[in-house]
User: Which sequence fits this backbone?
């Protein structure tokens, strides 16, 4: 597997500072579209974008694997990825993420290994937000924590509904 290209790489065309400012402005605008970050002041969004790494993946590459230590969250700027869980019965796709989504925040918040593998289904570009930066942002802006709880509660409700539907086709167990 080829490692992702990280950082603020720019072509040596003499206008690298202008290019970096344009990338930063684009990243701030993308972050503003994420519900989780939409209430942050522009200065904090700019700081978050500046401290994040822009990473690019080809189709079929993993952002991270189930069981890995959670060291970062990813904001999807473009492309799509599958969320996969590994079980004794094989690997199962449980969700798909795309532009304006965030993934990987659960392992950061809970200090647990990654609960799923995220693998690109198309070329993908994302902002990689390191754990320390993410947690500092939560400490500075507690309203973000409420929004994260909403996002996680929605995911839990969807998972519970899907599990109930799957179990509905199984034989009931008599007590």
Assistant:
């Amino acid at each position: 597997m080829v490692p992702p290209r990280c950082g603020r790489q720019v072509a040596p065309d003499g206008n690298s500072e202008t290019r970096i400012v344009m990338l930063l402005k684009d990243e701030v605008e993308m972050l503003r579209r994420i519900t989780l970050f939409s209430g942050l002041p522009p200065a904090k969004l700019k700081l978050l974008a500046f401290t994040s790494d822009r990473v690019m993946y080809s189709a079929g590459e993993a952002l991270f694997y189930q069981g890995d230590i959670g060291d970062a969250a990813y904001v999807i700027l473009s492309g799509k990825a599958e969320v996969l869980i590994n079980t004794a019965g094989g690997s199962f796709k449980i969700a798909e993420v795309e532009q304006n989504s965030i993934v990987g925040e659960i392992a950061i918040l809970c200090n647990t290994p990654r609960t799923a593998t995220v693998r690109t289904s198309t070329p993908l570009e994302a902002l990689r937000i390191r754990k320390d930066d993410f947690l500092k942002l939560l400490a500075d802006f507690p309203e973000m924590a409420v929004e994260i709880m909403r996002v996680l509660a929605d995911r839990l409700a969807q998972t519970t509904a899907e599990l109930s539907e799957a179990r509905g086709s199984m034989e009931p167990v008599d007590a």
Remarks:
- The chain is about 40% helix and 25% strand.
- The first strand starts at residue 53 and ends at 57.
- The two ends are 50 Å apart (CA to CA).
